[in-house]
Amino acid sequence: MSTSSKPSRSKRRQAKPKDPPSPNRAIINWKEEELHNLILRFKFPSDCGIQFPIAGSTSLDALPGYMTLYATFSREGNFRLPMSKFLEEILTKYGIHLSQVNAIGFPRVTQFEFIYRAQKREPTFEMFNVFYYGTYTRGFYSFNSITASVLPCSRDPPKSFHD
Fold first, then answer.
1. Which of 45, 84, 85, 123 is within CB 3.0–4.6 Å of 116 for a Cys-Cys bond?
2. Is residue 151 in some structural domain?
3. Which of 70-79, 83-92, 117-126 has the lowest mean pLDDT?
4. Residue 96: inside a domain
5. Domain containing 106: what range?
6. Is the residue at 16 inside a domain?
7. What is the per-residue pLDDT for 152?
8. Residue 19 falls inside a structural domain
9. Number of structural domains in the chain
10. b/e for 21-56, b at 16 or more Cβ within 10 A?
11. What gap in Å lies between CA 39 and CA 52, rounded to an integer?
């Protein structure tokens, strides 16, 4: 009989993954070099006043006049400074702060904006709400797709993009 404290392989597979910590518990453990690399990679303007967080702080401990930005927003959500007017409108009308949006919900906003702008249309809060709705889970806000059964406009599928 083994006295090892390690769980068996089958128990490790069955173990539930831990939920991500809420903003008041997630300790920021970045290295200053990582922040500088992020600033260079995404070409954040030097006049934005980006500062390295105080050791042991959480995302809620931002200095007065500052806010916490997650690297994931830039890496996966294509966040850039200055912030677009559309993103500002979404945050304002939902009444939330950028640092309250989770890393999964943020790319949904930017993707929606890119799709609309690619079609030479101006994205709006009202149109965004046709496709997405706001949610709140574990201390963060997100946006989920509205799923509805939609009847097809035509029973004959197009044969090419020109149809």
1. 123
2. no
3. 70-79
4. yes
5. 26-145
6. no
7. 54
8. no
9. 1
10. eebeeeebeeeeeeeeebbeeeebeeeeeeeebeee
11. 11
